[in-house]
UniProtKB/TrEMBL annotation:
Keywords: Carbohydrate metabolism, Isomerase, Magnesium, Metal-binding, Phosphoprotein, Riboflavin biosynthesis, Transferase. Its cofactor is Mg(2+). The lineage of its organism: Eukaryota, Fungi, Fungi incertae sedis, Chytridiomycota, Chytridiomycota incertae sedis. It catalyses: N-acetyl-alpha-D-glucosamine 1-phosphate = N-acetyl-D-glucosamine 6-phosphate; (2S)-2-hydroxy-3-oxobutyl phosphate + 5-amino-6-(D-ribitylamino)uracil = 6,7-dimethyl-8-(1-D-ribityl)lumazine + phosphate + 2 H2O + H(+). This is Acetylglucosamine phosphomutase. The chain holds residues 1 to 548 of 718 of the full protein. Belongs to the phosphohexose mutase family. One of its GO terms (biological process) is carbohydrate metabolic process. Pathway: Nucleotide-sugar biosynthesis; UDP-N-acetyl-alpha-D-glucosamine biosynthesis; N-acetyl-alpha-D-glucosamine 1-phosphate from alpha-D-glucosamine 6-phosphate (route I): step 2/2; Cofactor biosynthesis; riboflavin biosynthesis; riboflavin from 2-hydroxy-3-oxobutyl phosphate and 5-amino-6-(D-ribitylamino)uracil: step 1/2.
Length: 548
């Protein structure tokens, strides 16, 4: 059985393609919302095929541009257990999005069906959600047309955080199995996290006053739902929770702003001794911060979260004497080029945990982390989670502690595997993880921060003529193209004590990113600026030839 070409053509005509070349990037398709209508329609088609290729298991589709500006939007597909779309399917997504005519679109569809051997009479189930961006409503309508064009069943979860959509996708697909993940509703999500969190912190001394910046995005709704479910064990004030004024979304607020600007968001005046966190626009990232005794802003980013989690889990695994097939549990950490050099050194030398590097994008880190029994992965920007293998979870449940200390560690490990979102990096779940670890350790933000000192760093972006000219290699740490440019970068870096830098094209914005770190704030800034100037001179929008 094949598809109904007339129906596809008819519905596709409602969603004409813009003269744009689309790429399925770091986090799916992401660009200005006003050129995304046809992309959403076509992603709807692909979601049906992907579900059919999984014999009708449910596929998730999230409409969001996360940390990007309010006028942007985007879309990404979610696999049945909540992982990002299988990489070999990204090329199919790109081929559908760029088909210029309806005939070309049909051909691209046929190609996928044929290559993947898809049984078109298999059922197809798709769940969708969107963030608070006003453009989301029309884009969801286009997505629904795409799913309808291939006869798929669709459930619309309305406005949700990205991790909530990943969560419900996993719940639906595991329902009734030994791996059942929870109730596929927002209430189920809040209840699951709250229950596990309470097991971790119940009866213990709470942390100091908490403040959460919700970036004026969907996280503002979700954090309230979560705090209600938790009750007295965690209270927080919420700022930047205006979801009705799109212009405010991520504007001078949110995890990306705080991480890149290295300062507090609008709406917060930091009080020494109190605790702060910022979510991003779709609540899949989080960073923490506080003011030290001198009132100076101090950031606790994804690297600090990763080291906190890895250290704590290592301690519990040892105290719990957990083994898998007689061998100690293998805990590993996955980072990207953005990880601060001090964090990597701390993990290797002090925690003695192996570290792996991948390209930017949680989709890459997630897969690498699956290679460990317990894989901790975080991008420096605060996007990440901890994955527990089936064998690890089983070991936590079947190991019988002799002494109270061992039993306590085992209880903690069980609760951690429930409080941590196994489907994807999740700001709310990560918030609970961090609070639970600190409460159990009886430590403050400042004490957590003191584990190691970040090398000063700076992240900048440069508008270039063609970011596709920049081709990274070696987990984004070096460029193979433009030819000869890496040597220029290295010549600059060599002049700085503890200098490290790289240049890579963004997969979510039309820019090239420049990251630099060095022994002092001045040097990190100077190194970043020198490299930005170099990129702009040779390849910037105003550069003469587009090459040196
Ligand atoms: C997305 C990805 C992250 C990535 C970030 C920036 O975050 O999910 O893994 O680090 O974009 O990517 P790039 O430097 O390629 O633009 P989010 O929070 O926007 O979904």
């Amino acid at each position: 059985m094949s598809f109904d070409a007339n129906k596809i053509k008819q519905l596709s005509a409602k969603h004409p393609k813009s003269p744009v070349t689309y790429t399925y990037g770091t986090a799916g398709f992401r660009t200005k919302a006003d050129v995304l209508d046809s992309v959403l329609f076509r992603v709807g088609l692909l979601a049906v095929l992907r579900s059919q290729s999984h014999n009708g298991r449910t596929i998730g589709v999230m409409v969001t541009a996360s940390h990007n500006a309010a006028e942007d939007n985007g879309v990404k597909l979610v696999e049945p257990l909540g992982e990002m779309l299988k990489q070999s399917w990204e090329a199919y997504a790109t081929s559908l999005a760029n088909a210029e005519t309806e005939d070309a679109l049909l051909k691209a569809l046929e190609n996928i069906v044929q290559k993947e051997g898809i049984n078109m009479s298999a059922p197809a189930n798709v769940v969708i959600a969107r963030d608070t961006r006003p453009s989301g409503e029309n884009l969801v309508a286009a997505l629904k047309d795409g799913v309808a064009a291939l006869g798929g069943n669709l459930t619309d979860f309305g406005i949700q955080t990205t991790p909530q959509l990943h969560y419900v996708t996993r719940c639906i697909n595991t329902k009734g199995t030994p791996e059942a993940y929870g109730e596929p509703t927002n209430e189920g999500y809040y209840a699951k996290l709250a229950e596990a969190f309470k097991r971790l912190v119940g009866g213990k001394q709470k942390l100091a006053q908490f403040h959460v910046d919700a970036a004026n995005g969907v996280g503002a709704i979700a954090i309230r739902g979560l705090l209600n479910a938790i009750g007295g064990d965690l209270t927080a004030t919420i700022v930047n929770d205006n979801i009705n004024d799109a212009a405010k979304l991520n504007h001078d607020a949110g995890a990306d702003f705080v991480k890149v600007q290295q300062r507090e968001p609008v709406g917060l005046k930091l009080i020494p001794g109190e605790n702060y966190a910022s979510l991003d626009g779709d609540a899949d990232r989080i960073v923490f911060y506080y003011a030290d005794e001198a009132g100076k802003f101090r950031l606790l980013d994804g690297d600090k979260i990763a080291t906190l989690a890895a250290g704590f889990i290592m301690d519990q695994v040892k105290a719990g004497q957990v083994t898998i097939n007689g061998a100690p549990v293998k805990v590993g950490l996955v980072q990207t080029a953005y990880a601060n050099g001090s964090s990597t050194a701390y993990v290797k030398e002090v925690l003695k945990v192996p570290v792996e590097f991948t390209e930017t994008g949680v989709k890459h880190l997630h897969h690498k982390a699956e290679e460990f029994d317990v894989g901790v992965y975080f991008e420096a920007n605060g996007h990440g989670t901890v994955l527990f293998s089936k064998a690890a979870i089983q070991a936590f449940h079947t190991t019988h502690g002799q002494k109270e200390e061992q039993q306590r560690a085992l209880r903690i490990l069980r609760a951690l595997s429930d409080v941590i979102n196994q489907a994807v990096g999740d700001a709310l779940s990560d918030l609970l993880l961090v609070v639970a670890v600190l409460v159990n350790q009886g430590r403050t933000f400042a004490e957590w921060d003191s584990a190691y000192t970040d090398l000063p760093s700076r992240l900048e972006k440069v508008k270039v003529k063609r970011r596709a000219d920049f081709v990274p290699t070696d987990a984004d740490r070096r460029l193979v193209k433009p030819e000869g440019f890496q040597q220029k970068i290295e010549a600059v870096v060599a002049k700085f004590n503890k200098g490290r830098a790289f240049v890579r094209p963004s997969g979510t914005e039309d820019v090239v990113r420049v990251y630099a770190e060095a022994d002092s704030r001045e040097n990190a800034d100077l190194l970043a600026k020198t490299l930005c100037d170099l990129v702009a001179k040779d390849y910037g929008e105003g550069a003469a030839s587009g090459s040196s």
